[in-house]
Amino acid sequence: MDLFAFDDTDDDRLSRPATPPLTEASRLAWLRLIRSDNVGPITFRQLVNHFGSAAAALDALPELARRGGARARIRVAGLAEVEREMATAEAFGARFVATGEADYPASLAAIEGPPPLLAVKGGPGVLRRPMVAIVGARNASLAGRKMAAILAEGLGRAAWVIVSGLARGIDASAHAASLDTGTIAVFAGGLDRLYPPENADLAARIVATGGALISEMPFGWEPRARDFPRRNRLISGVSLGVVVVEAALRSGSLHTARFAAEQGREVFAVPGSPLDPRAEGANDLVRRGATLVTKAEHVIEALTPLVGRRFEPPSASESGDDELDRPMDVPESARRRVVEALGPTPMPIDDILRATGVKPGELHLILMELALAGRLERHVGGRVSLLP
Q1: Is there a domain that residue 312 lies in?
Q2: Would the CA dihedral through 43, 48, 49, 51 be positive or negative?
Q3: Is position 319 within any domain?
Q4: What is the pLDDT of residue 192?
Q5: Rounded distance between C-alpha atoms, residue 161 and residue 125, angstroms
Q6: 274 lies in which domain range?
Q7: What is the DSSP string of 133-175?
Q8: Burial (0-12, 13-18, 19+ Cβ within 10 Å), 360
Q9: Same domain, yes or no, for 247 and 161?
Q10: What is the rounded CA–CA span in Å between residue 311 and residue 282?
Q11: pLDDT the model gives residue 310
Q12: 163 φ, ψ to 5°?
């Protein structure tokens, strides 16, 4: 059963959830689980589906990590810790939205490893509408910033919500041009740790005009360099398409375009002068197959047919409805065979199953153990590798 679907008959093209909102007790348990050591979005979903609830998974974390080879006892987020974060969010005017709930963006729920909880500040309606991202250089030219604004205005008039990262340059221009029609800013740190600080007024205007600020990171989290690719994955994940306006060859905007391609989103690029280094990345995207755009109508024409698509996100429900057997432990011999089969090269799950002969449910549990011990790295396409 699909959890989400865009409904073309609704005036604002809302997504329709098929699951009820979390209880407050479950919301606290979900927050505790995702804030615990070594629990990323994919491991979170697997834990909830394996144990039936976040609360049950929390009780199992220390033993799972020990069996996975953890050198020390992992930190499990306490109830008081997440209650403080909930209180901080409330004082900040924000709330936590879970996968499956009405305000969780349908397209984001369908990516591999969607954040189980999003911190959201701002109007709920904007999160239910079709979105398109506009990203680009921080040191953008005047022409680049103007182009971003023209695209954002045109897309906004056609009822598209503009998504970007609230950075200097292209991002800020796209947000500012779409304040009246709806825009969403995705943060690399906690919602109370805005970056760059100079865009504080723009962030306030986004909320005041019915837009939203979102983040998967904890309140109080200062953004680091490695957090921006994670933010870029969310920018592409909430959107049906990504438009790149001015980007150098090593630009973070190209990370967003790569994530978009991996997530099955449309990638667009505005061409620029071959003599301008800020256009090299966008020009290269066109060379490699991105759709060349020079006006909003080009994006609208490509994305409008996708608005009615149905999304089939991976489940992360309290009931846990995956089809795997869910053993609580596995033979040590099975664990040893899996560890021996893994290495630094990413391997597909099916290859590991064939090579080791373990049952799918056993492999599912062993990989969770290794992840919680900090020994497993997950890659695009469900591949995994062993960390040294």
Answers
A1: no
A2: positive
A3: no
A4: 96
A5: 10
A6: 129-186+201-210+223-306
A7: EEEE-TT--HHHHHHHHHHHHHHHHTTPEEEE---TTHHHHHH
A8: middle
A9: yes
A10: 29
A11: 67
A12: -115, 140
Residue-wise pLDDT tens digits, 130-162: 999 999 999 999 999 999 999 999 999 999 999
CA distance 369 to 364: 9
Q: Alpha-carbon distance 187 to 136, whole Å?
A: 16
The two tokens of residue 33 are: 């689980």
| Per-residue pLDDT, 9 | 28
Write out the two tokens for 179: 């304040």
Report the C-alpha gap between 240 and 232 in whole angstroms: 14
Indicate the SS3 state at residue 309: coil
Query: Identity (one letter) of the amino acid at 242?
Result: V
Residues 285 and 357 in one domain: no
Contact criterion met (CB below 8 Å) for 352 and 338: yes
Instruction: Give the tokens for residue 214.
Output: 């979102």
Please identify which residue in the block is written with the tokens 């040590």.
Answer: 332
Rounded Cα distance between 178 and 173, Å, is 9
Low-confidence ranges of the chain (pLDDT < 50): 1-18, 315-322
Distance CA 100, CA 29 (A): 16
Please give the structure tokens belonging to residue 314.
Answer: 């991976």
Distances (CA, A) of 378 to 119, 348, 383: 24, 10, 6
CB-based contacts of 87: which residues, under 8 Å, 6+ apart? Answer: none
Inter-residue contact 239 to 104 (CB < 8 Å): no
Instruction: Please report the pLDDT score of residue 16 as a whole number.
Output: 44
- The pLDDT, as a whole number, for residue 309 is 72
CATH number at residue 31: 3.40.50.450
pLDDT recorded at residue 110: 92
Domain boundary among 120, 154, 174: 120
Place of tokens 């153990």: 369
What single-letter DSSP state applies at residue 347? B
Structure tokens at 77: 């987020």
Residue 124: per-residue pLDDT: 86
Q: Are 104 and 97 in contact (CB under 8 A)?
A: yes
Report the alpha-carbon distance of residue 383 to residue 115 in Å, rounded: 19
CB 236 within 8 A of CB 259: yes
The total number of residues shown for the chain amounts to 388
